[in-house]
Amino acid sequence: MKRNFLVILFIAGAILRSPCEAQNKAVPEQFKYKVDLKKEGTSAEKIAGLDSLLQSLVNQHKVSSVVGFIAKGGNVVYKKAFGWKDMENKVPATPDDYYILFSQTKAITTVAFMTLVEKGLVKIDDPVSTYFPEIPDKVITVVHDDGTYETRPVAKPMTFAHLMSHSSGLNAGLVGKMRRSEMQKRNAAATAGTSPPVGPGQRSGGAGNARYLKDDMIALAKYPLGFDPGSEYSYHVSTNMLAYMVELISGKPLRQYVKETVLEPLGMNDTDWYYEPAALSRFVKAYNAVDGKLEPASNMFSEGTVSKEQTYAEGALGLNGPIDDYAKFCQMLLNRGEFNGHRILKRETIDAMTKVNRLPESNAGGKGFRFGLGFELYNENKKPVPEVSNTAFAWGGLYGTAYIIDPENNLIALYYLNMPKHEDSYPLFLSKAYKLFRK
């Protein structure tokens, strides 16, 4: 009798535990590259159709190189590159090449900040002024011809959620115009008509000559806001301020903290802001499409990753790396916080970041544009192609890199170019990526 009772207890305990345990064990901890296409719901013929699309972009001189990555449930059904890493020297592109990620840096910075939230060091709705008293608390109302301006108090203080949703008001509206005008005048006076090099601060919306992100953000904080926090959307510089907050709260440089909490645990070993000089050969060269031809473009951003005495790492841009490195980050998000045997964030944290719109319904992003904490949230009113579900979230970078995480379809898809002005081919790729699994 006693034995039967113990058996019943064991079975009951297993039943109670199994839903949660199965849920936690269901997520893939590594990518599986050798897959049965039929079992994944696709075919070699459909894969060949995607090959043809990407090769046609190269053949038509619309892109110099392109690489795609698609995984369903952690099973990689597509990882291929087309075109040229170096056209002049006829070096073929490969999936392992490095790309300039630009704004794909933002999501990683945001995830790094959310690890501080989970440690109890900060809350997303805390006023930023609690940690950085210099943060602006006034909104600009008028800019006079002589450069002076008038302000009013903010309707509500800036929070970290405002930084992560690009609704902080930093460097926005009249403030952004005023600061750009000031920078142009300084550059003109300093260079006497020559074109100055673009420094990290100029890319970030900062002073243009700072050696550290801290210097830029302190300079930025001396200006008022362009609008009340939470009332509008103004892209970019908010994530740099968030990155500076990561440094203040963690007590570590941004690069160190991001590598320790996100990149290294996920096995993103080739993703970084800076590299040793030998790594320059890993980068795809940049080209522009001009009148149906491809012309060499500046490689200043890849070359800048190996210059000496690097000190400027910013949160809004600057990371680089191969496509499957960032795919690990995407799969972690699809897994709701876990990959490579490491839990980066809690499941509920990922949900809060990717399911809750943080913008007013009418905003500068356009009709239907929604943004969570670090990601655009696709919905019935706005998505890149019809096949994308309403649970998907995504972002991308200035040089043609893009990614999507779609929980409803258990899918991630990444698409990389290295062209500052490029044919908008991403929707074509994305539509075919989804149709791989449609009858």
TrEMBL record:
Organism in which the protein naturally occurs: Spirosoma endbachense
GO molecular function: hydrolase activity
Protein name: Serine hydrolase
Residue segments, region Disordered: 185-207
One Pfam family here: Beta-lactamase
Record InterPro entries: Beta-lactam-related, Beta-lactam/transpept-like, Diverse_Enzym_Activities
Keyword list, A-Z: Hydrolase
Domain Beta-lactamase-related stretches: 50-421
